[in-house]
Write the structure tokens for this entry.
Amino acid sequence: MALAVRVYEATEKFPRSEMFGLTSQLRRAATSIPSNIAEGKALGGLSYARHLKIAHGSEAELQAQVELAHRLKFLGDAEADALLSQASEVGRMLVGLHRSLPKK
């Protein structure tokens, strides 16, 4: 959730012309991560593992979009680095959580 909040805050400063472009893409990828974790947990079983993989894919997508926003100069170095670092941490946690699930 903290990553999604941070993405929303960072994209507030994006150009208005990007509202339906990169701003929307970043926000959807960021909100997809906790949403898929919650949905998978609610469904349980093998669905949980599948939704964790989807969340991890959204994390990778978010990193690519942050890099693009940085290259387009919508994000400064410090903000991009902070977002990428936090996204990487979330990705590592997702991998660890997925590995901890029983294999059936």
